[in-house]
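Narrative summary of target 7.
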Amino acid sequence: MSKNTGTGTGADGPPDRVPDAAPDTPRGREGRVRWRKSAAVAVPAVLAVGAMSVVMAQGALAASFAVSGTSFQVSSSKLSSKGLASYVQTDRSVDGKGHPVALLGIGEATLTDICQSAEVGTPLGTVVFKLTAGGPAGEVTASNLVIDGEDLDGDATFGTAQIGRDASTLDRVDGVKGEPGKFGLQAGDIEVVGVKSHAWSATGGNFRLKGMRVSVGLDGEKCF
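Modeled conformation, tokenized:
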């Protein structure tokens, strides 16, 4: 008489087993065993995607994309924030070239005005792309503004500063942390007057640009 293989409960032989299941696991539970294995693989991936989504929402992945081959100018009459965190990293353009930058994480940023300009080559010649906002229209705000800059000029006033702190332990601005062992700094409430910076990228959550204006022109003027 042949062995019953449909349910694993034949009277003339022991129930079939899933080869890699526990000895007391019947074949009837095979689907659940495989589901658990699939879940064990899927859960870490889901958690990783979820964590990345949170960080992206916080604006902390300023260099998660390939930057263009040209830096741009950013300026403001005054910038204030509830905190600042910074560390050194490298942005890369699509050709693989690296650009060393100071990542500046600015929590709950408020700017009296903002100007961003970049020179762009076209068949007609070099044009200036320029974006302005704020001023008479009202303040510009952004949650967790992150700028990857080559430099930053201005007159600054800030609260308690921690210079030389391990970049992986920075906690002043949500999501802004570097690699363990790398140089970092952070500070409390800050105010910078006469902001001027050459940057490779800038991101922010909940950007509010009142009175925004975009212009492109062969004879356009840069921010400074």
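Residues 1-57 form one domain.
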